[in-house]
Amino acid sequence: ILFGIGIRDYGIFHLADYPIFLGVAAYFALVGLNRDLFGVRPIDVMRYAAAVTLMWASVEKWAYPEWSFPLLIEHAAMTLGFDNEFYMRAAGMVEFALAFALIWTPLIRRCAAAVLTGMFISACFEFG
């Protein structure tokens, strides 16, 4: 209901970053009701929502790379010497591929999840 209110008040574009919250809500509802969603397990519903969330974040890296330029200027070592535009396109591609891999076969999605986890944990050391 809150997500729907947010879409009404702010528009779908501004809520496109957050389908993970719908996935978590669906997971809790399905587990609580001991049901599945048209044959899809609750954990898979949450995994798909996480994948869509990460894919949208990577699309934003392509569409709005300038949003990250202040961060890249402040932490220049992160670009590994590449041009900021190229780095954002490459980072978006890597993130999209890993997020898309979350909806593939069990082995590929486990590998992608491990790489994504490593990326997120390593970001904590740099950014807190």
What features would you highlight for this structure?
128 residues; mainly alpha; 75% helix
Concise account of the structure shown:
This protein is mainly alpha-helical. It has one domain (2-127). It has helices at 2-10, 12-15, 19-33, 42-63, 69-74, 84-101, 106-127.
Task: Describe what this molecule looks like in 3D.
There is one protein chain. The protein has 128 residues and is mainly alpha-helical. It has one domain. The protein contains 7 helices and no strands. The protein has helices at 2-10, 12-15, 19-33, 42-63, 69-74, 84-101, 106-127. Helix 4 (42-63) runs antiparallel to helix 6 (84-101) and helix 6 crosses helix 7 (106-127). The two termini are 32 Å apart.
**What does the radius of gyration come to?**
17 Å
Structural class: mainly alpha
Helix content: over 70%
Total count of strands? 0
Q: Can you give the mean pLDDT?
A: 93
Number of DSSP helices? 7
For the biggest sheet, the summary is: none
| Unreliable stretches | none
Straight-line distance between termini: 32 Å
Residue fraction in strands: under 5%
Number of domains: 1
